[in-house]
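Students often ask why we bother encoding 3D structure as a string. The short answer is that it lets us treat folding as translation between two languages. Here is a chain of 132 residues written in the first language.
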Amino acid sequence: MNPEDLPLRPLLVVDGANVVGSVPDGWWRDRRGAAERLRDRLAVAGGPADGPYPGPYEIVLVVEGHARGVASVPDVRVEEAPGSGDDLIVELARSAHGRPCLVVTADRELRLRVQEEGARCMGPRSLPSTPG
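And here it is in the second language, the structure alphabet:
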């Protein structure tokens, strides 16, 4: 796909802290490493298999706190929240400017906030699980 086609692609915003925290796999011992593993899964899978929009997505992984310092990779842009990750996610949904936006989070309050901006939501289980 050409870079000029990017605005036409649906935006997938992933709440890194919420998605990582949804699986009790020891993520709290290495938050940055857990965020990197999520980023890598997203790069391979390209988003949810059964999402409401056809891919490919423009994928943005939002990290905060001890998960900061995760680098972007081809197909996944990592955004570091300077404060609240939720506030950055809402801003990203708002800035989608009418193109389809899907936010992955289980946070009920965040879901309400991004839906007010026109985004749709799916839970963390909609993303691919860690490869065996």
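Translate back mentally: The chain has a mean pLDDT of 88. Keep this in mind for the problem set.
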